[in-house]
Design goal:
Chain lengths: ~180, ~90
């Protein structure tokens, strides 16, 4: 149980939010717990859901890489809710649990087969809330060898937004068992 | 204020007892509003901090370049309020 009770499905009447919930249900991230909690702030629920979905499933960076980054961040945030969810789209694209674990815990190891671009993107997620001081000019210069500035903004905004929502859900005590509400 | 501080520096301290205290002052809808707002800002302020953004205006209200703002505000920008307080 979360510390704040989610609204019942039938209490959510905003058509935009309901459409986003249907989209999220197909993707698998988030499940209905997150939007049913957000629905308590009706003005913010749809924009936040839209940002969560778009930043994860759309854009110009491989969705599988962003799925690994999302889970790396959720594990770092100790957010059991988001860490327990998996993207059906990423799974359909071939992403496995082994690859996710490799990406979270051993992405720098050459034997794991991550490209230089993937490694630095994962390092970007890893360092953002571990030691942001390391994300300095030389780091961004290295990022630009592999990613366009638009892609770097896409990655940075994705990292910031998902980590923020993960810390929010952690503060509500949302656990793996409630993630399948 | 404590909710925003703890989410960043000591999230384990946000426990059932903390929520009981929060509920003495805010209803559940307001707590969700606060929590989502704090999470959003926690993420984006850290990200923007890595991009070395500086204020667009000098303390006396002039629109300044990022290079000039960096000279004015230094490597670790402080709020305008703190700058004024120091003067």
């Amino acid at each position: 149980m979360t510390r704040i009770a989610p609204l019942p499905q039938e209490a959510i009447t905003d058509p935009q939010l309901r459409a986003l919930m249907a989209e999220a249900e197909a993707l698998g991230v988030p499940d209905d717990l997150f939007p049913r909690i957000l629905a308590r702030t009706p003005e913010q629920a749809a924009p936040l859901m839209r940002a969560l979905l778009m930043s994860h499933a759309q854009g110009n960076v491989d969705h599988r890489l962003k799925e690994i980054m999302r889970i790396l961040l959720a594990r770092f945030a100790k957010d059991k809710y988001f860490a327990s969810l998996r993207s059906a789209k990423a799974r359909a694209m071939g992403l496995t649990e082994q690859r996710i674990d490799d990406g979270c815990f051993a992405y720098e190891a050459d034997a794991k087969g991550f490209s230089a671009a993937e490694k630095i993107a994962l390092r970007y997620a890893d360092l953002m809330f571990l030691d942001a001081n390391q994300l300095d000019k030389p780091f961004y210069d290295e990022m630009k060898q592999y990613w366009s500035e638009a892609q770097i903004m896409e990655l940075g905004a994705f990292i910031a937004f998902h980590y923020g929502m993960q810390m929010f859900m952690r503060s509500l005590g949302a656990g793996a068992e409630s993630g399948t509400s | 204020m404590r909710y925003s501080e703890l989410m960043s520096v000591d999230p384990d301290a946000i426990d059932a007892a903390f929520f009981d205290e929060l509920r003495r002052h805010y209803n559940d809808d307001e707590i969700v509003e606060l929590g989502a707002f704090i999470g959003f800002n926690l993420g984006y302020h850290t990200f923007f901090g890595t991009l070395k953004f500086y204020p667009l205006f000098s303390p006396d209200g002039r629109l300044v370049s990022q290079a000039e703002a960096e000279k004015l505000y230094g490597a670790s920008p402080v709020s305008l309020g703190k700058t004024e307080a120091a003067e």
